[in-house]
Write a structure and sequence with these properties.
heterodimer; A: alpha/beta; D-Maltodextrin-Binding Protein, domain 2; 8-stranded mixed β-sheet; two-stranded antiparallel ribbon; 13% strand; globular; B: two-stranded antiparallel ribbon; 76% helix; flat
Chain lengths: 448, 304
């Protein structure tokens, strides 16, 4: 350790001596970071397992580049309000911020995020070894790009506004011990999944099949959308007509209802935390939700199922499709140190940092990190996650400014289906009708 | 001449600072909210960039099913809660208005719930209502009964939040009615006792009517508060299942933060404000009518 310190000290000395020489000799030769040395960056990150891992790796960046980073870590639900205020100021306090995926629609539409093209074009800033192809496509399409197909997806007219960082997908966790005990096969299709979900409570009295979110609002809607994409459905067709009430939509709602009915006690009001707790406490045999959850399973202080859980890809319906979500990082238009912020962004999402963060328990954004031997030695599920990510669906839910309203309506309606036995088809028809009205007001049918 | 005019102006000069504070602190925010309610305003925009839409927010809300349901839920919640709280609170006050040993300790214990932060109250009740590990269902199951879906059934969820609110706010009514009871003039009660009134008669014909002015104000305060309740319900059910417990304050907060429609949220707040204003005015007018009638009766009695 002390040896390492001495070495860094000497290199630091050497570097500063060299820059001194360079400055006096007035040569143009300098490292990419030299110009920004001692810059003070202010970044906004959420309190989230991935970003907690990032905090452990950040000192490495400062050591390597001399750029100081001050992190404002906020609870992730509070973040958006704060950012909205910050972004409307003439001069913002944040140089780099992590945004939730649905903020992409608002921030890009309000012209508050920097288009990253000019940074990746700048030879002094862009690292030729960055290897953007290695970034997970589904994440980049979902979180980073806007302006292409449907406005929020990649396409001929799209461009990049952020880089996925702390992104997540859906994955199926199951109790290996229970599956072995009863000779059950890991479900690969939705039919198998639903069948198993209701079989388990019979085989293991008191245990629920699949722990799923179902609480009124965002949670119920999220759970429904998880099933909608693999079952072949979408909220809208290509002309923004609501299709949530078609056969696939009904099937997804039925799937959700089956899962909740065969779930653990109280499943009808589970949020993400309750569904997770139910699985960690051993009261549910399966769990189908975000990969961010995987970090807790083998933590003995939170989990009673340490070492008993295995992972499999999100089962397929008519197609393979897992969710895409979580966070990306972008540079605000009103930032003070945009170039240094870009360097930090590039460094954080580089192969090297991605791996360092993964080793601290973060969610990697690169395929290579998922296949990395060292990472897999520590987190054996990474390889499965990497495979699953090849089918991550960037369009599993629309990312448009009015989505919040539609999402809330969908979520409360689904809650009525789950708790009050409202008729599925009639309820979804009503959602489609109200959605059409919301879309109409927002101007989506102007060109009809 | 000059000094006379100055004398006339003096009271206004003394009132001016207070008037200024009132205008800045009270009227400006309300005016801002009223102005915002005529805009289609997204939080990513500065207020100057928002489009003027006139009364559209108000008319849209009138046909918005979710808003109407939320209004209905709020009314149900507020009126039931306040009715039960008044009944229990005044009843408790009547019971405890006597010299029992350790009464001051008892009183302090009774008003404890009121002092707990609403978020904590919400969390506490949410855990007590928990379907499998909560104390209610555990007790029910131990006694051999079916467990109750406290928060996962739409009817029960409303009942559950009502119970929690009654638990927290009955003490408020209790403490105010107790104060009112203890400051009642002794002479009418003594006269009634000498005339042989039973305790029930004393309560119904003497105590309650004399407490009326205080009770009305208490009722009003509670009603206004009940219409604005947010945290406890936010934590306990977040408005669910369905929209069964989505009271107005929660709907307003979601409209502003989740749906990002500040104009509509402002319009909703104005509806709530208007409604409460009407309620308050109706209450005072009723009070006035009752009082004038009483005075007339009194005058008539004196004449006769």
């Amino acid at each position: 350790m002390s040896l390492k310190k001495t070495i860094t000290k000497t290199t630091l000395l050497a570097v500063s001596a060299m820059s001194l020489v360079a400055a006096t000799a007035n040569t143009a030769y300098a490292g990419p970071y030299d110009k920004y040395k001692d810059t003070q960056l202010v970044v906004n990150f959420p309190a989230h397992p991935h970003y907690n891992a990032v905090m452990k790796v950040l000192p490495e960046f400062t050591k390597e580049t001399g750029i100081q980073v001050e992190v404002d870590q906020l609870q992730y639900l509070k973040m958006r309000e704060k950012q909205t205020l910050e972004l409307t100021k003439r001069k913002g306090d944040y140089d780099l911020l992590a945004y939730v995926v649905f903020s992409k629609a608002d921030y890009v539409y309000a012209d508050q995020l920097e288009n990253l093209a000019r940074y990746f074009m700048n030879p002094r800033l862009a690292d030729p070894k960055y290897d953007a192809e290695d970034l997970i496509d589904g994440y980049v399409s979902n979180i980073g790009i806007a302006g292409g197909k449907k406005g929020y997806l990649p396409g001929a007219t799209g461009s990049l506004f952020g880089v996925p960082f702390g992104s997540e997908t859906s994955i199926l966790g199951y109790r290996k011990d229970i599956f072995d005990k009863h000779g059950l096969n890991v479900p690969k299709t939705y039919d198998e999944l639903l069948d198993l979900a209701c079989k388990i409570p019979q085989l293991e009295p008191g245990m629920g099949g699949l722990a799923s979110r179902a609480a009124s609002g965002h949670h119920a809607s999220h759970a429904f959308l998880l099933h909608l994409a693999p079952l072949g459905g979408r909220i809208f067709d290509d002309e923004w007509n609501p299709t949530v009430n078609n056969a696939a939509g009904v099937q997804a709602a039925e799937a959700l209802k089956t899962i909740v009915d065969c779930g653990a006690e109280g499943a009808k009001t589970f949020g993400f935390a309750e569904a997770g707790a139910s699985f960690l406490q051993g009261r549910s045999a399966m769990f189908l939700d975000s990969t961010v959850f995987a970090g807790q399973v083998n933590n003995p202080s939170k989990s009673k199922v340490v070492g008993k859980v295995a992972w499999a890809p999100h089962p397929m319906g008519v197609r393979k499709g897992s969710q895409t979500g979580g966070f990306g990082i972008g540079i605000p238009k009103n930032a003070q140190n945009k170039e240094a912020a870009f360097l930090l962004m590039q460094w954080l999402t580089s192969k090297k940092a991605d791996k360092l963060i993964a080793l601290q328990g973060g969610n990697p954004s690169r395929y290579s990190t998922h296949e990395d031997a060292e990472v897999n030695a520590k987190f054996p599920h990474m390889k499965t996650f990497g495979e699953a990510l090849k089918h991550a669906d960037p369009d599993w839910r629309p990312i448009i400014p009015v989505w919040g309203k539609i999402n809330a309506d969908l979520g409360t309606t689904l809650s009525k289906i789950l708790t009050e036995d409202a008729d599925i088809k009639t309820s979804l028809d009503a959602v489609a009708k109200r959605t059409r009205k919301i879309m109409q007001d927002a101007g989506y049918y102007t060109w009809k | 001449m000059k000094s006379a005019r100055l004398n006339k102006l003096t009271p206004y000069m003394f009132l001016a600072p207070a008037g200024l504070v009132l205008a800045l602190g009270l009227l400006y925010p309300i005016a801002y909210m009223v102005y915002a309610s005529f805009l289609s305003w997204n939080p990513s925009q500065l207020i100057g960039e928002a489009d003027w839409v006139g009364l559209k927010n108000y008319s849209d809300l009138l046909v918005d099913e979710a808003f109407r349901e939320s209004l209905w839920v709020t009314m149900k919640f507020a009126f039931i809660v306040v009715f039960v709280e008044m009944l229990v609170g005044v009843g408790l006050a009547l019971l405890l208005d006597r010299n029992i040993r350790g009464i001051s300790v008892l009183r302090t214990i009774f008003i404890l719930p009121m002092m707990i932060a609403p978020i904590v109250v919400g969390l506490m009740w949410r855990y007590m209502y928990h379907p499998s590990v909560g104390i209610f269902n555990k007790t029910l199951k131990d006694m051999g009964f079916e467990s109750i879906p406290w928060l996962s059934d739409s009817t029960w969820a409303l009942v559950s939040v009502i119970i929690a609110d009654v638990w927290q706010w009955t003490p408020f009514i209790f403490i105010l009615s107790l104060a009112a009871l203890q400051s009642l003039p002794k002479s009418p009660l003594e006269a009634a006792r000498i005339d042989g009134a039973t305790p029930w008669q004393q309560i119904i014909y003497i105590k309650i009517p004399l407490m009326m002015p205080v009770l009305i104000v208490t009722l009003l305060l509670r009603l206004i508060d009940a219409f604005k309740v947010l945290e406890v319900i936010l934590v306990m059910t977040n408005g669910g299942p369905g929209l069964s417990t989505e009271i107005m304050a929660l709907r307003i907060s979601r409209t502003a933060s989740e749906f990002r429609e500040l104009g509509e949220a402002a319009a909703m707040s104005n509806y709530l404000l208007l409604f409460l204003l009407l309620l308050t005015m109706a209450m005072f007018i009723y009070n006035k009518i009752v009082e004038t009638r009483k005075e007339k009766l009194l005058a008539a009695a004196e004449e006769g």
